[in-house]
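Subject: Protein record for review, amino acid sequence with backbone structure tokens
Why sent: The fold of this protein is of interest and is recorded here as tokens.
Notation: Tokens come from a learned vocabulary of local backbone shapes, not from coordinates.
Attached in line: The record itself begins immediately under this heading.
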Amino acid sequence: MAQQQQNTGTLFNALTAGSKIIGTIIADSDIRIDGLLEGEMQCSGKVVIGEKGRIKGNVVCQNAEILGNLEGKIEVRQTLALRATSDLRGEIKTTTLIVEPNAKFNGTCSMKADNKAEEATGKK
């Protein structure tokens, strides 16, 4: 019987400073962006955009922490943290939003109850 590999949070991917990807990234584990991504990202874990990191495009992930720049849409199933050095221009969809003083956000934000609460009430 094949064993199913689970995301333990101990593995992560990285796009280092000075690197650039144009296209789509699909990651089953956490990922840190310190370079430039022009395109789409789908991540089953946590996305961290470092202070020098920049994404121009759309992101879908479980959790996210932004210290750098994001221009586009981000959909976070659980918690999105905008740190003091972040600059986000676009659309946010999340369950929980943390915004530190001096974080920059220009765009729209919609928040929903977590999935467990929705399931309990029968709303989606």
Remarks:
- Residues 12-121 form one domain.
- The CA atoms of residues 3 and 68 lie 37 Å apart.
- The longest strand covers residues 69-82.
